[in-house]
Amino acid sequence: MEATPFLAGWIQNQRPRAMSSKNSTVFYRNLEETLDLRRKQRTCYTLKDSPWKYSDAVDFSSNDTLSLNNSGRLRSEFMKELASHPNLPVGSTGSRIMDGNSEYIELVEREISRFHGAESGLIFGSGFEANMAVLAAVPRPGDAIVYDELVHASIHDGMLHSQALTRTPFRHNDPDVFYEVLESVRSSQPLVAQGKRCVIIAVESVYSMDGDICPLRELVTIANDVLPAGNAQFFIDEAHSTGVIGPSGAGLVNELGLEGEIAIRVHTFGKAMGSNGAIVLGNQTLKTAVTNLARPFIYTTAPSFPAIAAIRAAYKLVANEKTNAARAHVQDLVKYFFVKIGRDSIWEDAVARGILSVPLADDWEDAPLHSHIVPIRTRDSYSYYLMFHLQLNKLCVFPVEYPTVPKGQGRVRLAFHADNTKEDVDTLISTICEWAKEMMKIEDDDTAGEKVPSAARLVYTLI
Ligand SMILES: Cc1ncc(COP(=O)(O)O)c(C=O)c1O
């Protein structure tokens, strides 16, 4: 079975090691003890190739949403881009503020900014760095940050390093709670109420573990009502909408026509754009501020020519006919999944018993847009069972557990791709439902001593 090397590597890495490292120095023993806490919860990460890379298993997990990598399209465009600049050196030879700047990187920044309808842009080596850098550098002393409770780890790390006076979460995607939080910041911080200090509001366009979309227009309206002096400004991470949502995949802000309302946008290139890196979009003041204040921008080597060439190649592909079709196909697949899973004969029973739920499927018809990310929720201890079952049936998915998602909210995260077919989705649905049926049978059978489903039993033999 193609998934076996992957699952064997994974399960073997969950085996406790601290006891067997008794003779090591305290340095390694302490590390192994810490890792054992992860291993006990079966959440110790393993570096292994996903089976879809070396077998005919189907990719329902990677971030190659538009299949720019899998199809080879990005590679061809990238090779053309490299070939058309035969004299550019590979390395950047320094930080952007010293020797690492180049006309080429500035040209690409201008092109990307224009594509997204922004005044200017600043490229970073990764989305993590960009988020960290901006959230740490931009808030001025006395400013407040208000953020959606589910924002990415990089945003949390940035906020922690910032000089903001307060950092307040609001309930995920909930405009009413957002209003209350903003109002309480305004009423408790006189300088904010007087328009002398700012509130920076941090959100994501598509939430990476939930797949739902930010009600951005509503949040902007609320922010303008509560703080009409213009001292509430938005930071939006467009990592999972870049390439996928909006006109030619330009993102949620472009989809909603809010380019003039959002001060800071971060688009990342490691997801649907198929390479890596990120750009911070905003006006010239923002760009100069980030250039001067953001430590992860200043104290690092500028991205190499091939890294920028890959980004440029992706932007050359993102708006063409083939990619438009790929984007539409992903939307179709997601809707197809929502319709078809609801029609499976065991669905209602499995949902009623709490064995399966797909929160995004509940009211999908009312949603104007869909992301390609669809989490499947099950009982807390069952996510791994479902993952084993799908992997052993040549469907690549990963479970997501605490601390990536809140405690008790583990899930299996599906990501749809342009290369997936409707037949792949049919197989996915029937395999998920087959597993749910097995779990219901196990739960119903009082006499069954063995409560572990067949796929998990097989995986446990690999330890
Ligand atoms: C929402 C979000 N923002 C930022 C990042 C970081 O981007 P990158 O992978 O380019 O570092 C990720 C990646 O996991 C993400 O999901």
Automatic annotation (TrEMBL):
It comes from the Eukaryota. Residues 56-432 form the Aminotransferase class I/classII large domain. Keywords: Aminotransferase, Pyridoxal phosphate, Transferase. Its cofactor is pyridoxal 5'-phosphate. Pfam families: Aminotran_1_2. One of its GO terms (biological process) is biotin biosynthetic process. Signal peptide: none annotated. Belongs to the class-II pyridoxal-phosphate-dependent aminotransferase family. BioF subfamily. This is Putative aminotransferase. It comes from Lophiostoma macrostomum CBS 122681.
